Amino acid sequence: MFRDSDRKKCQQLFDKQYAGRKFSRGQYQEPIRQHVSPGTGLLDAACGRYLEFSRDLSDTVQVVGIDLEEQLDTRNGRSPYAIRGDLEHLLFPSNYFDVVISRSVVEHLTDPPRVFREFHRVLKPGGKVILSTPKKWDYISVAARLTPYIWHRALVSKMLGVSEDDVFPKLYRANTLSKLGRELQAAGFKAQTLKAVGHYPAYLMFSPMLFRIGMLYERLVAFNSFRHLRGTLLCVFEKAGAAAAGSRDARQTDRATEVGV
Predict the structure, then answer these.
(1) Are 36 and 61 in contact (CB under 8 A)?
(2) pTM
(3) How many domains in the chain?
(4) Integer Cα distance of 16 and 88 in angstroms
(5) 261 lies in a domain?
(6) For the chain, which has fewer Cβ within 10 Å, the N-terminal or C-terminal residue?
(7) CA torsion, ordered 195, 157, 65, 111, to nearest 10 deg
(8) Is 256's pLDDT higher than 80?
(9) 3-state class of 60 per DSSP?
(10) Element at 215 (helix H, strand E)
(11) Considering the domain boundaries, does residue 86 fall inside one?
(12) Distance of alpha carbon 171 from its chain centroid, rounded?
């Protein structure tokens, strides 16, 4: 287990079966590109050490990242900029950004409502928040919740080949479609897109046998009848105007939600 030869076999299976396909990562990047243009101010919330999902936009977009990482890979001489800070207390003026993005972060939040209110505060009217996060009831998420954190940290490190320092506790306090929609609506947003999307079995790429089983599962949830089993939540919400009515936003959220679990 966790042998380089097995990882190589899994990579070969991936290249053969998934060439050209877009999963949650690609589907997250699409709306970001749709909602930015030259001069757009974009906040990458919990950007990570390397600003992986916003750096390639920085030639035309004014990218600012924020993270609790001690070291961020930018010199801050030009975009992308980055600062160390807490999402519950964003160090930016109100009505400052056009777009806020965040990937694989919501599941770690201690207080999602407070973070969403901060996103709303720093966005300009009509600004977009684009989030991607694991679903609470995905099999990987269930396994993570059932595993003591000290074991989970070591296992994920070996499964993904990353440092244990890059594995954080997962709380899943807003990680269902209905919960995520309600919390964003309560923060003042209205829904444009709210859905569950699929992902290849990335956590199983250490075992060819388990990876094949994961591939079968991914093919099953690709059918619309099983969309409620897809493992990643993707949403695009807009900062509502002051006159937006809560009942109207609730109806919009219901229409945008594919599976309310």
Answers:
(1) yes
(2) 0.87
(3) 1
(4) 43
(5) no
(6) N
(7) 60
(8) no
(9) coil
(10) helix 208-221
(11) yes
(12) 14
- Which pair of tokens denotes residue 127? 């600004």
Domain that includes residue 154, residue range: 4-256
At 126, which helix (H) or strand (E)? strand 123-134
Confidence of residue 89 (pLDDT cuts 50, 70, 90): very high
Q: Judge contact between 167 and 157, C-beta under 8 A.
A: yes
Residue 141 contacts by C-beta under 8 Å, 6 or more apart in sequence?
Answer: 107, 134, 135, 170, 172, 175, 231
CB neighbour class for 193 (10 Å; exposed up to 12, middle 13-18, buried from 19) = middle
Environment class of 7 (CB within 10 Å of its CB; exposed 0-12, middle 13-18, buried 19+):
middle
CA 84 → CA 14, 16, 146, 209, 242, distances in Å?
A: 36, 40, 31, 41, 31
35: confidence class by pLDDT, cuts 50, 70, 90:
very high
Which CATH number goes with the domain that contains 168?
Answer: 3.40.50.150
Q: What is the dihedral of CA 45, 49, 55, 61, to 10 degrees?
A: 40
In a domain, 190, yes or no: yes
Residue with tokens 């519950």: 88
CA dihedral 12, 17, 22, 28 (to 10 degrees): -60
Give 102-128 pLDDT, tens digit per residue: 999 999 999 999 999 999 999 999 999
